[in-house]
């Protein structure tokens, strides 16, 4: 089932099926575990930071519409909350420049705390920034 970006919450599970447009991409230096880059993606409800690994960094560009299957939204060291395919997920290009989107709220900029009633779930605690602090708002 397709999930809107505004409805994703942090979890250590590959269970997010969604689609989005890539708005911008920043190159990250090569690390011990390989090449990665961070991108700003959005759908009609929210935006999010996504992580691309290896060949994905070259395969996807700003304007690409991407389908993510079995994605994961979780904390990544030094990058905060990131949506990514992970080992079990898959990203595939569906088209270019033909989807409505919004830049705010950015769900990567929401502060989440463990739910006191269920430590496997997270609840919103506050908004750090309405927009991405990595990518400036589009003109």
Structure, briefly:
This protein has 139 residues and is mainly β. It has one helix spanning 55-59; strands spanning 16-27, 36-42, 47-53, 64-76, 80-84, 90-96, 110-115, 118-127.
What gyration radius follows from the Cα positions, in whole Å?
14 Å
Task: Give average pLDDT, whole number.
Answer: 83
Helicity, in percent? under 10%
Structural class: mainly beta
Taking pLDDT < 50 over at least 5 consecutive residues as the criterion, the unreliable ranges are none
Write up this protein.
About 5% of the residues lie in helices and about 50% in strands. The protein is mainly beta and about 140 residues long. Strands 1, 2, 3, 4, 5 and 6 form a six-stranded antiparallel beta sheet that branches. Strands 7-8 form a two-stranded antiparallel sheet. The chain is globular, with a radius of gyration of 14 Å. The mean pLDDT is about 85.
